[in-house]
From TrEMBL, chain A:
Taxonomy of the source species: unclassified sequences, metagenomes, ecological metagenomes
Name under which the protein is recorded: Unannotated protein
Domain DUF6285 span(s) in chain numbering: 27-111
TrEMBL record, chain B:
Ranges for domain Aminoglycoside phosphotransferase: 25-252
Source organism per UniProt: freshwater metagenome
UniProt-recorded name of the protein: Unannotated protein
Length: 114, 317
């Protein structure tokens, strides 16, 4: 699925990098550098999850938008701003929930309420 | 920062304070627009905040608000010198008496030494908020009223990124805006991270630079925004229930906060933080400050979209 590239896959490479950063780099640092390294590890995790889940999430995103009759977030945002959804804002938000959950699943899955 | 520069500042501080000697002058981490110094004069510790060279805006009314809050008994550092309109240190400044304590939210929420503090903090915050809301507006001339919805709607438009959930939230807020019962002095950034805590609980409410005239419930809603719970399980600063916060507020203000009104402000607060996250990432993306930390904040925008959907569809109470 990652042709023409060899293993490790992009995701596996990031995982290896993360293991090294967490296991060896982080314990050797303190203070500001340690904090910024933690932030860096988090960002690597985000990228890895996006590589793993992104393609499927793109489909969900496009599907949800098309059920609402839009081709992009931008078009939808403008319609909402113009008041087109004023009478059903709550049901709109319920419809958008799967997209937002997908975003959180990539950026910070621990944030999701189970 | 050379020692010579510090020496000169120490000398000028001793003139400003009218003391013979200023010692132990050290620079603390400051915000983007201010530098913060700590020093000792006559055996007592003080904190100097001074506008950073090249930044726009000074202290305006902040020292006045701080002094008024302190006068009413809100735990705050005591204002010693209001240098908002002074050129004694070249740039606008203020000097306050140092207060001891911890500001890092995660430590306050988890370290053993704050176990007792945690049990009393929600009540203390409720009382402090009610007290600061009783500041006489006429004692802080020049403090401006601010339409928060308008300010952040403009900010989102200017950032130019499409966020349907945020747009929907703005529409909801407009349609459900509560009638403001009173206009008063609002802290504007009342939350964990901007308060100092010692083993007895709240030792000072800090960071008054966003103070403005507005609805008092703005401060309570902001305090309860999920981001400011820092992983804590309860709404009020991660530690207390709405009822604990409202009981304490009522014990000082004489009137119980309306939960629906606080919720409206919590929803606006969640939206505000989401927009601030976009703007922090933009600071990196447009090259003003290249920083992977700022960049990563861009991926926290969706946490706020997620919370807004929960709040607005009332799947959390």
């Amino acid at each position: 699925m990652t042709a023409p590239h060899d293993r490790p896959t992009a995701s596996e490479l990031l995982e290896a990098l993360r293991e090294w950063m967490e296991g060896e780099l982080l314990p050797s640092l303190e203070g500001r550098l340690q904090f910024h390294t933690r932030v860096a590890i988090n960002s690597l995790d985000i990228v890895r999850r996006e590589i793993d889940l992104g393609a499927e999430q793109q489909l969900t995103h496009a599907e949800v938008l098309s059920t609402l009759g839009f081709g992009s977030d931008e078009e939808l945002a403008i319609a909402i701003r113009n008041g087109d959804f004023d009478s059903n804002l709550i049901s709109l938000l319920t419809t958008l929930r799967p997209i937002v959950e997908d975003k959180v699943r990539v950026s910070n899955p621990k944030y999701l309420r189970s | 920062m050379s020692t010579g520069g510090n020496h000169e500042l120490a000398q000028r501080l001793s003139v400003v304070l009218g003391v013979s000697d200023v010692t132990d002058l050290v620079r603390l981490s400051g915000g983007a627009s201010r530098e913060t110094w700590r020093f000792v004069a006559n055996g007592e510790s003080f904190v100097l905040q001074r506008v950073r060279k090249g930044t726009v805006g000074g202290f305006r009314t902040e020292p006045l608000v701080l002094a008024a809050a302190h006068h009413l008994g809100v735990p705050t550092p005591e204002l010693v010198i209001n240098g908002a309109d002074s050129d004694a240190l070249d740039l606008p400044f203020m000097i306050v008496r140092a207060v001891e304590g911890e500001t890092i939210a995660r430590k306050i929420l988890r370290d053993d030494q704050f176990a007792h503090a945690r049990s009393v903090l929600p009540e203390q915050l409720g009382r402090a908020a009610a007290l600061l809301h009783s500041i006489d507006i006429s004692s802080v001339p020049g403090l401006a009223a601010e339409d928060q919805v308008e300010r952040y709607r403009d900010a989102l438009l200017a950032l130019g990124e499409p966020h349907p959930v945020f747009e929907a939230t703005f529409r909801w807020l407009q349609h459900n805006q509560p009638e403001s019962i009173k206009q008063c002095v609002v802290h504007g950034d009342f939350r964990l991270g901007n308060i100092m805590v010692d083993s007895n609980g709240l030792s000072a409410v800090l960071d008054w630079e966003l103070a403005h005239v507005g609805d008092p419930m703005e401060d309570l809603g902001w305090l309860c925004v999920r981001a400011w719970r820092f992983g804590g399980t309860h709404p009020a600063a991660g530690l207390g229930t709405y009822d604990q916060l409202f009981d304490a507020y009522e014990s000082v203000a004489g009137k119980r906060p309306d939960h629906d009104v606080v919720r409206w402000w919590e929803i606006l607060g969640t939206l505000k933080w989401g927009i601030i996250c976009i703007s922090q990432a933009a600071t990196h993306l447009n090259g003003v400050v290249r920083s992977h930390e700022l960049a990563a904040i861009g991926r926290r925008v969706c946490e706020n979209e997620y919370d807004l959907i929960d709040l607005l569809t009332e799947s959390v109470v």
